[in-house]
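Protein in question quoted for reference:
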Amino acid sequence: MENRGIAFSLLKDPLNFCALGFGSGLSPRAPGTAGTVVGVMMYLGLQHLPFPVYLAVVVVVVLAGIWICGHAARALGVHDHPAIVWDEIAGILITLTHIPDGWYWLLAGFLLFRGFDIVKPWPIRQVDKGLGGGLGIMLDDILAGLFSLICLQLIYYLL
């Protein structure tokens, strides 16, 4: 599905502006990747927060995302339109939770998350197909973020 038919006027609504990744979801190619890049930039601004505060921010992003993504889906008239990328932002913030220092960990998290989000292995695929509304939009990316986080932590501890 292309993003050409989306009216830029949707960005005037603050909830849609957030759901569309502050405009990154309007990218003509790979809007999910563009949204993930926005999430990485947010992570770079949040990474030095104390761990409990970072975790609280991620929880707020996830919980607010259910409402934000549901609102945008109704406004667009399409469930999980590719331009809705708040779920990618939440997913990458989950992935990057408590990662070790170093750009290579950030890159590994980015690649793992995009891989899980695109391929959608079991049970992510079932969740993606089985739920509607804002929760359905968010939950597959939450799982992709958790899978990626687990992989990163396992790699770190095995090295």
